[in-house]
Write a structure and sequence with these properties.
The complex is a heterodimer of chains A (about 270) and B (about 375).
Chain A: H1 4-7, E1 11-13, E2 19-23, E3 45-48, H2 70-83, E4 90-95, H3 97-108, E5 113-119, E6 127-128, E7 132-133, H4 138-152, H5 155-159, H6 185-197, E8 211-218, H7 224-233, E9 237-245, H8 249-252, H9 254-271
Parallel strand pairs in A: 2-3, 2-4, 4-5, 5-8, 8-9
Antiparallel strand pairs in A: 1-3, 6-7
Chain B: H1 2-8, E1 13-17, E2 22-25, H2 27-33, H3 37-40, H4 51-66, E3 71-79, E4 85-97, E5 100-109, H5 111-147, E6 151-156, E7 161-164, H6 166-172, H7 176-179, H8 184-188, H9 190-204, E8 209-216, E9 222-233, E10 239-248, H10 250-268, E11 272-276, E12 282-285, H11 287-293, H12 297-300, H13 315-328, E13 330-338, E14 344-353, E15 361-366, E16 371-374, H14 378-384
Antiparallel strand pairs in B: 1-2, 1-5, 3-4, 4-5, 6-7, 6-10, 8-9, 9-10, 11-12, 11-15, 13-14, 14-15, 15-16
Classes of the chains: A alpha/beta (about 270), B alpha+beta (about 375).
């Protein structure tokens, strides 16, 4: 039996208060939350993890088929909640693609989640003119995969023996280096494809939990109009535009994100 | 002042604030991309990058910079004013420019290096797909050899096993992984090894060896095997090993013995016997047949039993004969036949249809009373009558 908490490198901070579950996006690991978590240390139990294939997760558990669909990442979230016997009251905080992961998880298990906070969400990164402009064309995303190949298949990987892979045992069990954003090339490719080619627009109306959408004003990954689009499709959602440039307000402008989360948590606590 | 220094740097360089707004570009960068420093000032640096590189910037590079991690040798593409994309390597770090926190972005044009790395990447992908194809082929060959009801193996010139199929596991009671790599002496045991020595020595000398060998299985049962040693000869004509195919021929051996027994009865009985095919052509006669009829086997084979017919019987007799064969599958009675020398003689004869697949007729003549038994198949009945 796989230990889920080890598999996903789960860390829990604090021992009282409601749960905040933080999910990192494509590219990095749970370390992206370092500037947010101190603000909730005394009021919440904070749960951090790495998706399988990212950060310091157990790479041996990586499975191309499972993680070629966002459902694989959704299952990571649900596995962790189950391993910790969480049944309700969880606030999900997801960045980028993990916003979609959280929404899908809340559709699967609405009772588990109290509310969701989505930082830089996008239900679909591709343009579907004339009605939807996710920001990118298919060729852009193919270029991205090639760029990732160039960056991740470093010299060590060029020279590593080609594995014929007759059985599971002979699979590569690479240890990721400790540096931030280090990632396994195969897992990163799969995560990139899953992230950028997913289209979850039809799932938005199926979400029943309240959501806070934090949209960056100048985000090269997510056009401003996407925030409005999601707000319109998610019943009972609140849209807040952060007046920042970039896609990682929780890192570049943590105080803005903390303030927005505080405000949202207090409002929805009043409502409930 | 700062800009002067920047302009002396031998690589394209860009300085931005913490949000990516351009504070300065140096001459090298302008040479690479076109445009003027004025034109770029206070724009955001994203204008230099095509979409894929922008995603990469947002997903990796900014998060790394925001955590003060070093950004070194990152592959990106950069666009010039003509809309062409140029592969570059990026180094970036935090610094201080004109009194404000800023990021210094240094680029190295990597067109040649990219081509080279792309070739390596392609070579690696080819190697991976070949390895994959090889694996699939190995699995396919394994499934074929594992399903062959016999032992299949390969031994090199040092008599080390390189391949053994699953049948070896059952036969020797060891996993294939333990058999591969072991020596023939270890696997067969001293006794069998010396018994087969001359065969594999001959195989290693390039001669195909086919021989029968009696072997004792793990459960103690003895079985007859047919062993093939097939030399593996390389392009230079050297024997580099040999293939082994061992078939359990015990059931065939048993059947052979039974056949031999039946044949000896056929040969030595005092009753004359003849066998025909479905068309009534005699296929075989025994020595007693020759003695009774005077026809040698060579004379009889290829003829029909009409060879023996006398004109002694009328049409009713023949009709009754065929009627019995058709309805009862046999006929028994006395019949007048004619010998080779013309003599007419009376025999007791019985005829019976044999079982398929032979579909033969069998005539059996009893001697010394000159009785004859005869059997006829439906086919012949229908074609001749």
């Amino acid at each position: 039996m796989i230990n889920i908490l080890e598999r996903n490198n789960v860390h829990i901070m604090g021992d009282t208060g409601p749960f905040l579950l933080y999910a990192h996006g494509f590219g990095c690991s749970q370390q992206i939350w370092d500037r947010i978590t101190p603000a909730f240390a005394s009021t919440h139990r904070q749960l951090l993890f790495d998706f399988v294939g990212s950060g310091k997760s157990n790479l041996a558990s990586f499975n191309v088929t499972r993680y070629s669909s966002l459902q694989g990442y959704v299952q990571d979230v649900l596995d962790i909640c189950d391993a910790l016997n969480l049944e309700n009251g969880v606030t999900f905080i997801g960045h980028s693609v993990s916003a979609s992961v959280g929404l899908l998880a809340s559709i699967a298990r609405p009772e588990l989640f109290d509310r969701l906070i989505l930082i830089g969400p996008s239900p679909c990164y591709l343009n579907y003119p004339p009605d939807y402009f996710g920001g990118f064309e298919t060729e852009d995303l193919i270029d991205l995969l090639a760029l990732m190949d160039n960056n991740y298949i470093g010299w060590a990987n060029y020279l590593a023996p080609v594995i014929a892979g007759e059985s599971e045992d002979s699979a590569v069990s690479t240890e990721l280096t400790d540096s931030f954003c280090s990632t396994d090339p195969v897992a990163a490719q799969v995560f990139a494809k899953t992230t950028f080619f997913s289209d979850n627009r039809i799932d938005l109306p199926r979400v029943s939990r309240p959501c806070l959408i934090l949209q960056h004003r100048h985000d090269n990954l997510v056009p401003l109009a996407i925030g409005d689009y999601i707000h319109e499709k998610l019943q009972g959602s609140i849209l807040k535009v952060l007046d920042v440039r970039g896609h990682c307000a929780h890192m570049s402008h943590p105080s803005l994100v903390i303030e927005a989360i505080h405000e949202y948590l207090s409002t929805s606590q009043l409502c409930s | 002042m700062h800009v002067d220094l920047l302009d002396q740097l031998p690589c394209p360089t860009l300085i931005t604030d913490e949000s990516g707004y351009i504070l300065a570009v140096n001459t090298e960068l302008l040479t690479l991309l076109g445009g003027t420093a004025e034109q770029y000032r206070q724009k955001t640096m994203e204008i230099f990058f095509p979409p894929a590189s922008q995603i990469f910037l947002q997903s990796y590079i900014w998060p790394m910079l925001l955590r003060n991690a070093p950004v070194r040798e990152i592959h990106l593409k950069i666009c010039n004013t003509q809309g062409q994309t140029i592969p570059v390597l990026l180094n970036c770090q935090r610094g201080n420019f004109a009194g404000i926190h800023s990021y210094f972005w240094a680029f190295f044009v990597s067109i040649e290096r990219n081509k080279f790395e792309q070739e390596l990447l392609n070579a690696r992908k080819r190697a991976e797909s070949l390895a994959q194809a090889l694996t699939e082929q190995k699995v396919f060959i394994k499934s074929i050899t594992d399903n062959i009801p016999g032992l299949v193996a390969y031994w090199d010139t040092n008599l080390r096993c390189h391949f053994a199929n699953k049948a070896y596991e059952d036969w020797f009671g060891k996993p294939v992984s333990a058999i591969i790599g072991s020596s023939m002496q270890e696997l067969l045991g001293e006794q069998q090894f010396s018994r087969e020595r001359s065969y594999f020595q001959a195989a290693l000398a390039g001669e195909i060896q086919i021989f029968e060998s009696e072997q004792t299985k793990l459960d103690g049962s003895v079985c007859a095997t047919l062993v093939n040693y097939l030399p593996d000869v390389n392009a230079q004509g050297q024997v580099i090993g040999f293939f082994v195919l061992v078939s359990d021929v015990t059931p065939i051996k048993t059947a052979e013995l039974e056949l031999k027994l039946a044949a000896s009865v056929f040969e030595s009985t005092v009753e004359g016997i003849l066998i025909t095919d479905a068309a009534g052509i005699m296929l075989s006669v025994n020595p007693a047949f020759t003695e009774i009829t005077g026809y040698s086997a060579a004379e009889a084979i290829g003829q029909t039993p009409l060879l023996l017919k006398s004109s002694h019987h009328n049409q009713e007799f023949h009709a009754a004969f065929w009627q019995d064969l058709r309805t009862k599958g046999k006929w028994e009675g006395e019949i007048w036949n004619r010998r080779k020398n013309g003599e007419i003689y009376l025999v007791r004869q019985s005829v019976a249809k044999t079982m398929k697949p032979y579909a033969m007729f069998q005539f059996l003549m009893t001697s010394p009373n000159f009785g004859v038994r005869m059997s006829v198949s439906d086919t012949w009945l229908s074609t001749t009558h």
